[in-house]
Amino acid sequence: MARSTAPIPPASHAGKKAGEAETPERRAEEDAAALASYIADMASELSQLAGRSEMPMVAYFLNLARVEAETHSREIGERERAIEPEE
User: Fold this and answer.
1) Which domain holds residue 69?
2) Does residue 70 lie within any of the structural domains?
3) Are 33 and 76 in contact (CB under 8 A)?
4) pLDDT at 1
5) Residue 77: what pLDDT?
6) Cα-Cα-Cα-Cα dihedral of 42, 3, 5, 29, to 10°?
7) In terms of CB atoms within 10 Å, which end of the chain has fewer, N or C?
8) What is the rounded (10 degree) CA torsion for 15, 39, 31, 81?
9) Rounded to an integer, what is the distance from CA 34 to the centroid of its chain?
């Protein structure tokens, strides 16, 4: 079976202000959120494949993984917004 060679996307830094210091902890959280989002996307695609291939239990567990990854990504995003300084 061929393995996917899709690269893991780096965390987005689009919301950064010029000159804003980035701590290693903040970068690690952004990377974790990006990775969780990527896992959710891949689990969703795999779940669809499993469903079309008549593997309902595999599809079910992949959907559980998708939901867990989406929740984790959302929670990290909420923590980041909570600690951002007000302008």
Assistant:
1) 30-83
2) yes
3) yes
4) 43
5) 85
6) 40
7) N
8) 50
9) 4
